[in-house]
Every structure is written in structure tokens, then in C-alpha cells.
Amino acid sequence: MSLNITINKKPVTAEKGEYILDTLERNGIKIPTLCHMKEMLPSGACRMCLVEIEGSGKLITSCSYPVEEGMSILTHSPRVINARKTIVELLLSNHPDDCLFCSRNKNCELQSLSEELDVRQRRIIGKKNNYSLDISGLSLTRDPDKCILCGRCIRECEEIIGVSAIDFSFRGSKTIVGTSFNKGLNTSSCVNCGQCLMVCPTGAISEKSHLNQVIEAISNPEMQVIVQYAPAISVSLAEEFGLEAGRDINGIMNAALRKIGFNRVFDTSFAADLTIMEEASELLHRIEDKKPLPMFTSCCPSWVKYVEEFWPAMLPNLSTCKSPQQMMGSIIKNYYSKVEKTDPAKIYSVAVMPCTAKKFEAQREEMSTNGMADVNAVLTTRELAKLIRIFGIDINKLQPEPADSPLGTRTSAGKIFGVSGGVMEAALRTAHFVITGKELNEHRFAQLRGFQGIKETKVKVGDMELNVAVVNGLGYALPLMEIIASGKSNIHFIEVMTCKGGCIAGGGQHIGANTDAIIARGKRLHDIDERESINVSHLNPQVMELYNKFLGKPLGETSHEYLHTNYSKREVLK
Amino acid sequence: MDKLELILQEYQGAKRDSLIPMLQDIQESEGFLSENSIVKVGNILHLPTSKIYGVATFYNQFRFQPNGKFHIQVCRGTACHVLGSSTVLKEIEKKLKIKAGQTTRDGLFSIEIVACIGACGLAPVISINGQFFAKVTIDSLTEIIESFRNKEK
User: Fold this and answer.
1) Could you give the angle at the alpha carbon of A12 between the alpha carbons of A7 and A13, nearest 5°?
2) Cα dihedral: B111, B112, B116, B118 (round 10)
3) Which of A32, A137, A165, A466 could form a disulfide with A185 if both were Cys (CB 3.0 to 4.6 A apart)?
4) Which of A207, A242, A275 marks a domain boundary?
5) How far apart are the first and last CA of chain B?
6) Minimal C-alpha gap between B51 and chain A (Å)
7) A509 touches A249 (CB < 8 A)
8) What pLDDT score does B101 carry?
9) Residue A517 and residue A237: Cα distance in Å, rounded?
10) What is the CATH number of the domain that holds A48?
11) Which residues of A are catalytic?
């Protein structure tokens, strides 16, 4: 049913049941918001979206108030503008105001609102916050001083990720967003996914920067600095430079990385192909030997930590394969060093990831050989963009270059690791070949693509029917895990990605991207898969060469030493 | 079975609306909410500890450290406020080097803020282990605290 209302004295039709904010947005009127999160119930906490209802004399929050027949809404009356401005002034009254030194300078919602609403003086002087930084986590740093208590991080962590590592504690002016017992993030159930950071309007949560140590290593002539980049980076980096979402700048990125001074530029998608070789063989092995099923993917470090914390009894179901980042790290230090005749201790291995949890993963004890970390530093997509700017590189003036051999060749199967469902698709292609000796007739699995929370399908492999599922967003894992724990599931293989959409929407990506941008990134990865001719990991010539020269066969002894690991129960405050 | 386990057993199968009564029972019996007890409450109610801690810190009544041997309640009701109870509180915090809600390291003293203890005629008033001290001043506070400290020696 449609309703007749007026907006700023002009007649407009609205749908019954929709919130005023949605009606306004559809009619091209931008209303500032802070606590509002699309596709979630409104919370109405920040009051930024106030509008005036003529006749009622009231200011109401447009995000949480449904439209009513005959309503007359004023969106920018002097009273409304004044109220919004006061809200920003109040938020600024206890804010540290260190914008120039803040990681979110020029990309901060509070800063932009203050600019948009023309706040030009400190009208309200409050007591400045003086909380201590939480630097205990390996991936994320919390700075409660900068928090404006909008609650977005809390809702993201609880409703989307399903972890609830943080919540409001204390009351009134002493309210903070914190972990239980106000302890460090490192002892909390935080899985380091960084989605809290992605929704934070200010700099209250930021990634632990590894920029300094990378710059230092690059300038050290004794170090050979090798970089690898994840499949999702090449289709996301462009946005950091104001280019359109989903543009693939892989070649330009290779050139930029060389210009910065990285000695070798490798593609993590190569290691993704390698992961598939191991993972597909492991699946077959589990089915044949009646080992624990379903098998879970282990590429996503947040998911791995989640299982360690919340479902330790399911650890045997987690694939023993290291993630592509760690496989690449291990191959660089343990194989490539021999090819190059370099001391592995003189190799500084850097990974560029769309993810904050990868920083944590790289520092796990399991991810080292003889006490030497396989990956020394992890940069997010954002940090890579910073690095490119620090080194004064104009990406518009670069000619595309290929990645280095031998760990730079990938198939499109490795590339689609970056989007939800991709690992599963790539694994099914190779599993089919490993089991039947024949290629699949149809490489694409439409049922495994898209943004639904849980995607399931059946695949005929020889005379066997494989039941597979893809979990897209960690919050969706819980119901599935409960079914599996009760023994009622007949699924063989499950891919889990913590971030909704997969790594293209990871916590290390461009802040402020909307859903369309994320869809564009995913579409580009699927386009690459469509366009290229080698779509299966087992046809990657350099992966085959690596098996011939070093690893032997998938799941072989050498593979086990360098590419597989085991996880154990983790005690945290959950 | 210890007292905590008995309380937890009583709440087996309870829902999240039992959270506050549960915390109250635990505090009643243990004197405070320990990390361990909050984790166990979370397991029963299927609530994350961050949420339980959030609820517990919202209310003044919950403590996260055991009470001291001498538990000082500082009245911050209206009459006491008018007669300077904020100075009294600050002075006690300064003397004991702890904040309200905390316990001294030697376990002797703890401070709690209470809203009104119904002795407005004695304002500003404090109560130590149920014993009332009327019309306290900075000087009398020193004496009172020292007298309790000496009891220990």
C-alpha cells in the first residue's frame, strides 16, 4: 500500500511500513547517519538522522520511524540542522582531535560530518577521554578515546560474525566499548576479522600496521624482500586510488611493487592452486579412509580461530592444509631459497592481504619452520596503497608487468579464492579430476556463487555424490555447526569465509565501499575465470613443476612437512 | 560441591532473562563476580561474557573484586551530597589509593558507593561493615581508617 506524504512541502508517495530514512534516500535526499547499518534493524542511538515532523513539534529519528499517511517531513529546517550540528559538537567535545595523526584522517565519518555541517568552532568543551590503547591483539588496535559509541562494531561482531568479543560496558559518560573484564583483545574471543574496523566511523579500531618493518626491510641491502599478494587484491586496490570498483590492476600492481623495491613479486593465487592440489587430495583421502567428515576449509584464519575457540571438538574436521598465504611463505623460505641459493634467514617475506586476521595467522607458532616465521609481515590492501603513496609512485604512469617466476603463475581457479564459493569451486574441479581422471563438463557452480549466507549443492563425481556447502559470513556457521555436531548432516565438504562475500570484502580492504563495489570485485574475479583458458589448479604448469622438483606428490611426506599443520583448542574469554 | 556450583545448578536450563538474578545470587554468596563465575554463567545462559560484563558494569551493585575485610560504604544520597560526600569519597579513595568498587592489595579495605543508607540526619555518613560513622570530616576519616587498620595489627 502506498502512502501520501510531503517532504519539504513537496508531495511524495511512500510505501507503508518503510522507514522515513529509506523514503528520503529513494527521493535523493541525503540524511547524515552514524549508528545506522543497512539491512539491520535500526538502533536510533546516535540521533544524527533527525527530521522534523510538521505539526507534531517533534524531532524524530528517521532511521527508526515508519512513514505515516499525511506526514509532513522537514529534512533540513533550521531546527533540524541546528540539532544535527549540536550532536556533532557534543561528539567532538570529548574527542581527542588528533585527526592529523589518525589512521582514518580523510576517511572518517565524524570528520566529514563536522565538515558537512560546517562546524567551525569548539562550542562545547568537555573532559577529554583518557583511556589506554589496547595494543594486545596481533591484528587490531583499539583506541577507546576515539570511539563515539555508535555501537556498529558491536552489532557487526554479534549479528554478522557471531562472535560478540566486544560490547558496551559501564554506564552514562563512563560507557566504553570493550571486551569482557576490559582485558586485551588478545585474550578475548576476537577472531581478528576486522569487520568492526570496516564499520567503525572513526579511528577507534585500526589494523596493526606492519608498514615500518616492511620499509626497513626494503632499505636493508642484506635482505631479499619477497612479496606475495592475495587473489582479491588486484581487483580491490584500484578503489584506494579513486578508480572504479572492480577494476583489475594486477599488472600495474606488479610494476608498483617492483618500483617500491621488492626483489621478487609472487602471486598468492599460485599457492591457492597448490592448496587445491593438497585439499582435493585430502578430501578424497578422508572419504576413502572414513576420516572425520565433513571436511572444513582452513584458508580463513578467522574461521580457524573460531573453531579453536568455540568448536574444539570439530578440530579434526578442519583441513590440515595451511592457508595459501602460509603455503607460499613456507615454499619461499624452504624451496625458493634453495633455488636462489639464498640463506632463508636473509629472506624477508611480505604478504599483501585483504585481511587483518592474516597478520595474526602469520605470527602463529604453527606457521614457522625451525623457529623462523614463514611470513614476516602482512600488509592490508590499505597499507599497500599507503606504501605506494609513501614511495611516490604514480600508478597512472606505470606499464603493466607480469609477476615473477616460478611462484607467480596462477590459474583462474586460484584467482577465484577471493570470492565466497571460489575455494569450493576450485576444489571441486580438481577433486573431480583426481577421482575420475576426467575434467568436469561444467566448471561453473552457479549455486555456490552469490551473497546468500549458506549455499549448498550436490555434485556427481564418478559414481559418488558429493554434498558440499559454502558458508558466506561467519555468523551463518553456527546453525550449520549445530546440525553437524548432532550428527544429522550428510555434507562432505564445507567452505567457510568469515567476511560476507569472501576476501573481496575482507577487513583489510578499502573502507567505505558499498555493496555494489563488493559485488563488482567479485564479478571481476568471475570474469577472469570466464575469460582465461586454464581454469583448474592441476593444470598450473609451475605447480606441477614444484611437485616434480620438490614436493613429490600431494599429501606426500614433503607436503606434510611444509604445507600442512594441526590446530588445537584455544582457551579465551568467550 | 561449592556454593557457586549449587547456585549454577539451580539455574540449569534458565534463559537470558535470569541473568541479573543469577549475578545477584552469585555476588550474595561470593561477595563479588569473578571471571570464572561469569564464564560459567555464560555457559548456562548461552551468552557471551562481553555481554554479561556489560550488563554487570551497568549496575553499581556488582563488584569484580572480593570485598575487603573492612567494607566501606560511602553514602552518595542527596542529603550526604549536599553536605560534601563527594569530598568524603575522594578523600577515602586518596587515603586507600583505590577507586570505588576496588579493594586494597592487602585485602583490608574496599569501597562501595551506595545511594542512600537512610541516615540523612547523620550526613555525610559512611558505614564500615555495618557500623555507621556520622558527620565525617577529613580529620575524622583519618582516625576512623587508622582505627580499623590498627585492629588488624
Assistant:
1) 130
2) -60
3) A137
4) A207
5) 35
6) 6
7) no
8) 86
9) 12
10) 3.10.20.740
11) 279, 282, 299, 319, 358, 361, 366, 503
CA distance A271 to A277: 10
| Residues 6+ positions from B35 with CB-CB distance below 8 Å | A181, A573
Checking if the pLDDT of B2 tops 90, the result is: no
Judge if A322 and A401 occupy the same domain: yes
Structurally, chain A folds into a number of domains equal to 3
Chain B residue numbers with beta carbons less than 8 Å from the beta carbon of A158 are 48
H/E element, A242: none
Give me the CATH number covering residue A127.
Answer: 3.30.70.20
- Reported for A140-143, long-range contacts at CB under 8 A and 24+ positions apart, including other chains, are A140/A185, A140/A190, A140/A192, A140/A194, A140/A196, A140/A197, A140/A205, A140/A206, A140/A207, A140/A208, A140/A356, A141/A205, A141/A206, A141/A207, A141/A208, A142/A177, A142/A185, A142/A204, A142/A205, A143/A203, A143/A204, A143/A205, A143/A206
CA distance A279 to A554: 9
Give one word for A39, left, alpha or beta, with left for phi > 0 and alpha for psi -120 to 50.
left
Residue A517 domain flag:
yes
| A64 and A175 both lie in a single domain | no
Q: How far is B110 from chain A (nearest CA, A)?
A: 19
Residues of chain A neighbouring B23 (CB-CB closer than 8 A): none
Whether residue A162 is found in the same domain as residue A304:
no
Average pLDDT per 10 consecutive residues for chain A, totaling 574 residues: 92 93 94 92 93 91 94 94 96 93 94 95 90 94 95 95 95 93 93 96 96 96 96 96 94 96 96 95 90 93 96 95 96 93 94 97 92 94 96 95 91 95 95 91 91 93 91 95 91 96 96 94 95 93 94 92 93 89
Q: Which of residues 40-59 of B touch A (CB under 8 A)?
A: 42, 48-54, 57-59
Domain-located, residue A120: yes
Q: What angle separates helix B35-45 from helix B3-10, to the nearest 10 degrees?
A: 20
Question: Distance of alpha carbon A440 from its chain centroid, rounded?
Answer: 30
Tell me, yes or no, whether A196 and A302 share the same domain: no
pLDDT at B44 over 90: yes
Q: Are residues A451 and A547 in the same domain?
A: yes
Q: From the list A163, A168, A189, which residue is nearest B54 (CB)?
A: A168
Residue B153 has pLDDT above 80, yes or no: no
What domains are defined for chain B?
A: 3-58 (no CATH), 70-152 (3.40.30.10)
User: Which of A76, A110, A136 corresponds to the end of one domain?
Assistant: A76
pLDDT number for residue B1: 64
| Structural domain range at position A200 | 91-207
Question: Could you tell me which residues come within 8 angstroms of residue A437 by beta carbon, excluding any fewer than 6 positions away?
Answer: none
Residues A157 and A275 in one domain: no
Per the domain annotation, does A573 fall within a domain? no
Element (H, E) at A523: helix A515-531
Is A295 inside any structural domain?
yes
CA-based nearest distance B97→chain A, Å: 19
Per the CB < 8 A criterion, the answer to whether A460 and A442 are in contact is no
Name the residue in chain B with its Cα closest to that of A180: B50
Instruction: Name the residue facing A573 among B49, B54, B57 (closest C-beta).
Output: B49
- Is residue A360 domain-shared with residue A474, that is, in the same domain? yes
Q: What is the DSSP string of B63-76?
A: -SSPPPSEEEEEE-
Q: How many whole angstroms separate alpha carbon A336 and alpha carbon A334?
A: 6
Per DSSP, the residues of A468-519 read: EEEEESGGGHHHHHHHHHTT-----EEEEESSTTSGGG-TTS-TT--HHHHH
Taking an 8 Å cut-off on Cβ atoms, the answer to whether A164 and B51 are in contact is: yes
Closest residue of chain A to B43, computed from CA coordinates: A574
